[in-house]
Each structure stands twice: as structure tokens, then as C-alpha cells.
Amino acid sequence: MAYNLLKGKRGIIFGALDEQSIAWKVAEHCVAEGASIALTNAPVAMRFGKIQELGEKLNAEIIPADATSTDDLNALIEQSVEVLGGKIDFVLHSIGMSLNVRKKREYTNLKHDWMLKTLDISAVSFHKLMQCLMEKDAMNEWGSVLALSYIAAQRVFPDYSEMAEAKALLESIGRSFGYHFGVKKKVRVNTISQSPTWTTAGSGVKGFQQFFDYADEMSPLGNATAEECADYCVMLFSDLTKKVTMQNLFHDGGYSSMGINPAAMKID
Ligand SMILES: NC(=O)c1ccc[n+]([C@@H]2O[C@H](COP(=O)([O-])OP(=O)(O)OC[C@H]3O[C@@H](n4cnc5c(N)ncnc54)[C@H](O)[C@@H]3O)[C@@H](O)[C@H]2O)c1
What we know:
The protein is built from 11 helices and 7 strands. It is an alpha/beta fold.
């Protein structure tokens, strides 16, 4: 059901690769709520993903940008403001990639040049993005910037490997930049810590099925889906959450507050 929560708002959405991507669902929900959006992803994703299909469906411009390149980010922001017809109200950073995870290297045997790349793509890009938005004065007052995180930022999930460090950095950047963006431009910045979700990035984690099932059993409400995450993003982009900022918000069916759940322990 749509409530017109984003009527007249303009947004940029990073990270829609295919219909399983969380960003794909967020893009669909934002447009259903009345927003105009620009879609972006890494140039390589243009070839392998299905973003063109989404762009046609939502009548959204697709502007390729490597999120680690400030030149690309600046060009993306300029073009978005132009095609959307004004300053931006909301931005979703939905980006994660680890070569060490992809190549199945153990946490105690990482390639550190790959690790730096992981941190750059999955976390520092969030800082680069916000710095470019601020320098260009591209955000409207009371705008909202969101990034997607995971609870491995706070707790140990051995197979999540170096992505845990990437998420800890991402959340910290959200808090720190949230201060500056708030004071200077009245823009809010938050991260959403989402349940395990079946996507290309998610299923790249070793033992993802067990990961997913365990979280589902531990959470009193079960895992949050990508569609539900999209609803939460819409709310955080809307004017109903103007004073929510510098938070890491768990969207996980209650998982993060659990100690033991008898359901997961197979106890009656
Ligand atoms: N799937 C899960 O279980 C889960 C849980 C919590 C948080 N998240 C987070 O949600 C976000 C979205 O991931 P997803 O699960 O939808 O998977 P996904 O694979 O669909 O999305 C990841 C996106 O990152 C993009 N990307 C990679 N390198 C890039 C670069 N250099 N520049 C621009 N874009 C780049 C990819 O092209 C892809 O579209 C990630 O931050 C991920 O860590 C996922």
C-alpha cells in the first residue's frame, strides 16, 4: 500500500543489481510513494546486472558511477540534480563487496591490499559520497542519507570476515558525518542494520543458508525481508522522521536484542 510519503521528493539510489537486491526493492517502493529517482551502480554492474530493466520500469535515469571515485560521484550528483530538476532529498548507499570473501580467504589469512579495497568500496565510499554531496550543496534541508549495515559490526560472525570491519567503519562514518551534515545543512544520516537477506552480496558469505536460518529462528518476528527493508527506508526518507539522525537502526525482527531463543536451541 502506498501513502504518498515521498511525493515531490528526489532521490539517488545506489546498488540495484538484480531484482533480489535490497536497493531494487527500495527503488520500487520510493517511486510507488511518489518520488523521482536516479539509479546508479558501478560501471561493471551495467554489463552483468539488470539495472536497465529497473530503469525502464520506473522511468528512472541510470547514471554509472564507481562509488570509490570522487570524480564519478561528482558527475553523478551533478547529472542527478539536472535530470531530477532540483536538489536531492534522499540517498541510499547500498554497496558492499569483499574480494577476500569472494575468493574464500580465511579471516586469519587475508590479502591486505584486497582488505583496503573492501574498506574503500563498502565504507569509505559512504564518506566520499557525503563529502561530495556537501561540497556541491546538493541536498535539500531535512534531507535523509541512509546506508545498509549488518550486526557483524558489533558481534562476531566468523564467516562475515573483513566485512565486519567494513560495517563498523560504515556505521562510524554515518555517526560522524551525521553531526557535520546536521549542523551545516540540516541533513540526517543513519545506517540500517538489516537481517540476512537472499541477494548476490548476501549469498556470497560462506554458509549463508545456516546464517539465514539461525537468524530467522532467533528473531521473535523472523528475518526482515528486502521488501520490509524498503518500507523502513521509505519511512526514514519521509518527513515523518526528521529528527532521527546519527543512529544505527536495527531492522532484524528483534534478533539484536536476543540472548537465547528456545526455538533456535530446539528446547520445548
Ligand atoms: N544481503 C544481506 O544479507 C545483507 C544484510 C545486511 C546488510 N546488507 C547490505 O546491503 C547492501 C546491499 O547489498 P545486497 O544484499 O542488496 O546485495 P547486492 O549484491 O544486490 O548489492 C551490492 C551492490 O554493491 C554494488 N557495488 C559493488 N562495488 C561497487 C562500486 N565500486 N561502486 C558502486 N557500487 C558497487 C554492486 O554492483 C551491487 O549492486 C550492502 O551494503 C550489504 O552489505 C546485506
